[in-house]
Design goal:
TIM Barrel
Length: about 675
């Protein structure tokens, strides 16, 4: 059947008029649903009514199409006639054609053509005559839109299937918990639980093979009790067959994409679906209202800071309007048992509402900017050493992977870090070690600044000034060969172990040498024992001890939060403001594996990320100090000692990490 045959068949005209009539028909369905929802109570009832309205909105155009085709005189057997006529056959004529035919077809029975047409009939005729020429374009636009939205739906389904493939089995502990949850919630389907880094919130999907995917980082960011409520939310979606409705929504939205009422109805379905699942969670877990509301708040904050969005065609725990859901959960709690839990639920609502007001009024990036402007906090990071230390049995292959992960994380979070070169790791002093050289080149090619460290990582306290400077000169030669003409020469020097020598004279000689070569030594305001955690982490990786690795990551992030508190307190106490902090870290696998969580913590505290050069330009770094000795300590401590201030108690390294380090030192 050719395009000319299709035009003569009236198919395009029938579709076009169906689209025209559907505009007011679907709008009427939306209006009726709006009025019904004003009086309907109960999330399950409101959800059912919304789904029914969407189905009706989808069926009405189908009924209209067949009714219009049957009532149109020239449309009877039109398709068959078009095939019979052939591509170039003359069309069969009819006594009535065009607008007049449609007017007659819908005229009242018994009316006479000789009678004067009514105003409504005249208006319909003029409308038909005006729309007739544009019908092919109208239908063409609809077909293009339908194709695009169908591709969108297919892409969403493909994305979900890919996430199924990327997922991994959870730990045995959580596999057992998941089985207990399924039994508790009376889940009849064989539901599978997976863990993945590709999602930012728990999601449930799959029509024939239902699946729940949990973000790997969530196991460390929320309590087990909170996580159980979030998983229960997904299981309830599966129990209610919500994934079937979600797929139906996707199909109808693709077909009726042009109508705002369809999108409004679909939004009501998603809203009421989340409400219904929330109600089921709170019914299944006794006294869980505040815990569940807190879990949702934490989840949304994590998602915003990470900048992720949940897949559209999956049911996600953070779907819908979280602020509305949380307030509703807590309000429901106070209504049910207001005497016993009014105070705790009210306080939970107050705290969570205050936190989420900021989260929901702003998207992830604007949230970060707002916090940064409010606090004015800035953070620079210097990494020692470049390339990463070879602590594993797979060195230097492991160092290569660590460098790639670190560069990727820094770029994602827009951190303009400086890496300090340790030449002895890429050269014997005469020639380069090819593989390790390329690992160091990665840092340069990625556009990050290179600073000067020592050829060997030696402490000024342990060697003579002459030997120390000779070590720096040797490293300088390696750096120049490595950099060539492709990058700016190093500007900053980082004292290994942050040690500045036994005496002020030794330190002055080193500083004089640095100045003569155009280097400036970095003053780290934010020192820490990350290297101890990184050592323990690498040992656990060598043993494939996943549980210990997870424990170390959690302990490390908690420790660094305490260190933020520690040095921020120093800043306020000494300068009455938040100075630009300069932090020292090693380029370890622990740092790369926790980068997303660490940078989220920093952003949450109001930090923006700056260069070492910008941070060192803060006037605070001109504060005088003359510390020397065996220790390598932060400049906050040096400034405090120079002013005879009492040093603050530093947060302790976790005992099991310190024990691992001490065991290493004894070998």
């Amino acid at each position: 059947m050719t395009f000319e045959g299709i035009l003569r068949s009236g198919l395009i005209e029938n579709i076009g008029w169906t689209l025209v009539y559907s505009t007011w028909q679907i709008a009427a369905v939306g209006a009726v649903l709006f009025l019904i929802l004003r009086i309907a109570r109960g999330s399950d009832v409101r959800y059912f009514l919304s789904v029914a309205a969407l189905v009706v909105a989808a069926l009405i155009p189908v009924v209209t199409f067949f009714s219009y085709s049957a009532s149109r005189p020239s449309a009877r057997n039109a398709v068959a006639e078009a095939f019979a006529d052939g591509a170039f056959g003359a069309p069969r004529t009819s006594a009535l054609q065009g607008p007049a035919a449609r007017t007659a077809a819908f005229s009242p029975v018994g009316s006479s053509s000789s009678e004067r047409p009514s105003y409504l009939t005249t208006l319909r005729t003029r409308l038909s005559a005006g729309l007739e020429p544009v019908m092919p374009y109208l239908v063409g636009a609809w077909l293009i839109g339908f194709a695009l939205f169908s591709l969108r739906l297919s892409g969403g389904i493909w994305q979900l299937r890919r996430r199924r493939r990327d997922g991994e089995e959870p730990s045995s502990e959580w596999a057992t918990r998941f089985e207990r949850l399924c039994r508790r919630l009376r889940i009849r389907e064989n539901v599978k639980l997976l863990v993945s880094d590709s999602v930012a919130a728990p999601i449930a999907f799959g029509v024939l093979r239902p699946l729940v995917i949990i973000p790997a980082s969530l196991f460390m960011q929320v309590s087990p009790t909170e996580l159980e409520t979030l998983i229960a939310h997904e299981l309830i979606h599966i129990r209610r067959r919500d994934q079937w409705v979600a797929m139906l929504q996707g199909v109808i939205e693709s077909i009726l994409f042009y109508h705002p009422a369809v999108w409004w109805i679909s939004a009501q379905i998603r809203r009421e679906r989340e409400f219904a699942a929330d109600d089921a969670v709170t019914r299944s877990f006794e006294d869980s209202h505040v815990v569940y509301a807190s879990a949702l708040a934490n989840l949304e904050e994590i998602r915003h800071l990470a900048g992720h969005r949940s897949p559209r065609h999956a049911n996600a725990a953070n779907g819908g309007n979280l602020m509305e859901r949380i307030n509703r959960i807590l309000k429901k709690k106070t209504e049910i048992r207001h005497t016993r839990f009014a105070w705790s639920a009210g306080l939970g609502m107050l705290l969570i509402s205050a936190a989420l007001t900021t989260v929901f009024l702003l998207d992830g990036s604007s949230l970060i900017n707002a916090e940064s402007k409010a606090s004015g906090r800035k953070l620079a990071i210097g990494f020692v050493s470049i390339p990463p230390l070879d602590r594993t049995a797979n060195a230097p292959k492991d160092a290569d992977a660590t460098m790639r992960l670190l560069i990727d994380a820094l770029k994602r979070h827009k951190m303009p870090a400086t890496g300090f070169l340790q030449g002895g790791m890429i050269s014997d002093g005469e020639k380069f070690l090819p593989v390790r050289k390329e690992i160091a080149r990665m840092w340069i090619d990625a556009g990050f600044e290179v600073g000067l460290g020592g050829f060997k990582h030696m402490s000024l306290y342990d060697v003579s000034v002459e030997e120390y400077i000779a070590n720096l000169e040797k490293n300088e030669g390696v750096a120049k060969k490595l950099l060539g003409d492709m990058a700016n020469p190093p500007r900053y020097f980082s004292y290994p172990f942050l040690n500045t020598g036994k005496t002020t004279e030794d330190r002055a000689k080193v500083e004089a040498w640095l100045a003569s070569r155009g280097y400036t030594s970095v003053k780290y305001s934010f020192d820490n024992q990350e290297w101890m955690y990184s050592w323990a982490y690498d040992m656990a990786r060598n043993d494939n001890d996943v549980n210990t690795m997870r424990e170390i990551r959690t302990a490390y992030l908690s420790y660094m939060e305490k260190m933020f508190d520690h040095y921020e307190a120093y800043s306020t106490e000494m300068f009455g403001r938040d100075i630009a902090q300069t932090m020292v870290l090693t380029s370890s696998r622990l740092v790369t594996d926790t980068a997303d969580d660490f940078f989220a913590i920093a952003r949450k505290r109001g930090y923006t990320f700056i260069t070492v050069d910008e941070a060192q330009g803060d006037a605070a770094y001109k504060t005088r100090e003359n510390f020397t000795g065996k220790a390598g300590i932060s400049w906050f401590e040096r400034w405090s000692m120079a002013q005879n201030r009492r040093l603050r108690d530093e947060p302790n390294v976790d005992a099991f990490v310190e024990k691992t380090w001490e065991a290493r030192a004894k070998k």
